[in-house]
């Protein structure tokens, strides 16, 4: 991410926040610690880097960082000696990482008297790391600024939250996001689905690898058609079609969310007669099922799929979870 990309991303995704923070920096009223809460893709890291550029940039114009100087460049390239960025080491942020951070910040600034640290995915801190950080942000010292970034503030220690200024980042504008998706090569038949699944273009790029998104959308659509037609082959498709595409743990959530999305299509058609589907290729069976089942049954099915998140958290086999969902849904529809 280069300096101009940071400025462009922030001003397009979070125009109000970027403008407000420029005013705060200009008035020297920046708080020592912030918690940025928002969905993936809304610009949390870009906003933190943008503010950091505003803190260090010697050539600010109307409060905005120039985006061209050596300070701006090194910050966005994550090469500035007085700016430390921490992200999960594997599945979590460990206590040793926070200790390293504290050691770095116990030293004087290498090039000035200001220091900034940014913690990505702050909700993934271990309890030891979180408690170690808590002691640090209680008394951070002069000219030390911290930015904690999270997609789920509920997983952050309340004591940490109470010592930070919480900033909620707005959702992305749907039209502008879909425009970006179209430019990335996302098919028109996939736009509505992708918009339901994520706000992150980076995540979409991952799903585009090896045509994963199209393959998974087709697999879920085929599974749904088999269920609507009471075909036991729906159970078999979990092992044969789904599991080869579940490459790692990060690919589990979008699979579940796709299954939810196709039944939401049924729900939306049943009550709102919406013609915009996440699974447009399955329109015929979506309408068929919507006209056939009751609202009570539809809610039962959605609850079954939503309930699997608890099983995932306790490491139940993902294949077993999907097969169980399939059998339960078919059982409900055959009553």
TrEMBL record:
**PANTHER family, alphabetized:** DNA POLYMERASE III SUBUNIT DELTA (PTHR11669:SF8), REPLICATION FACTOR C / DNA POLYMERASE III GAMMA-TAU SUBUNIT (PTHR11669)
| Name of this protein | DNA polymerase III subunit delta
Q: What is its EC number?
A: 2.7.7.7
Quote the InterPro entries the UniProt record gives.
Answer: DNA_pol_HolB (IPR004622), DNA_Rep/Repair_Clamp_Loader (IPR050238), P-loop_NTPase (IPR027417)
EC class of this enzyme? Answer: transferase
UniProt keyword annotation of Hydrolase present: no
Q: Which organism is it from?
A: Apilactobacillus micheneri
UniProt keywords (A-Z) are: Nucleotidyltransferase, Transferase
For this chain, one GO molecular function annotation is: DNA-directed DNA polymerase activity
**Pfam families this protein is in?**
DNA_pol3_delta2 (PF13177)
């Amino acid at each position: 991410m280069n300096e101009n990309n940071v400025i462009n991303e922030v001003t397009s995704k979070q125009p109000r926040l970027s403008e407000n923070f420029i005013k705060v920096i200009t008035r020297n009223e920046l708080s020592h610690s912030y918690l940025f809460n928002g969905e993936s893709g809304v610009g949390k890291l870009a906003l933190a880097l943008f503010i950091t550029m505003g803190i260090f940039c010697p050539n600010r114009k109307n409060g905005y960082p120039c985006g061209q100087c050596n300070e701006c460049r090194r910050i966005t390239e994550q090469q500035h000696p007085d700016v430390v960025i921490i992200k999960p080491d594997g599945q979590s942020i460990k206590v040793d990482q926070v200790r390293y951070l504290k050691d770095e910040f116990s030293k004087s600034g290498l090039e000035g008297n200001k220091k900034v640290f940014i913690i990505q995915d702050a909700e993934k801190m271990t309890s030891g790391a979180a408690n170690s950080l808590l002691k640090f942000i209680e008394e951070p010292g002069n000219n030390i600024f911290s930015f904690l970034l999270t997609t789920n503030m509920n997983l952050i220690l309340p004591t940490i939250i109470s010592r930070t200024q919480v900033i909620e980042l707005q959702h992305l504008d749907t039209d502008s996001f879909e425009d970006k998706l179209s430019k990335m090569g996302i098919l028109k038949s996939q736009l509505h689905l992708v918009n339901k699944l994520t706000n992150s273009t980076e995540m979409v790029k991952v799903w585009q690898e090896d045509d994963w998104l199209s393959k998974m959308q087709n697999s879920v659509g085929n599974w749904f058609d088999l269920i609507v037609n009471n075909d036991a082959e729906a159970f078999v498709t979990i092992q044969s079609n789904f599991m080869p595409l579940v490459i790692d743990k990060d690919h589990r959530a979008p699979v579940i969310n796709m299954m939810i999305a196709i039944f939401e299509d049924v729900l939306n058609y049943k009550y709102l007669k919406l013609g915009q589907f996440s699974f447009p290729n399955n329109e015929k069976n979506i309408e068929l099922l919507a006209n056939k089942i009751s609202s009570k049954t539809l809610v039962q099915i959605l609850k079954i799929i939503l309930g699997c998140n608890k099983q995932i958290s306790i490491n139940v086999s993902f294949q077993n979870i999907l097969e169980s969902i399939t059998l339960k849904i078919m059982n409900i529809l055959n009553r």
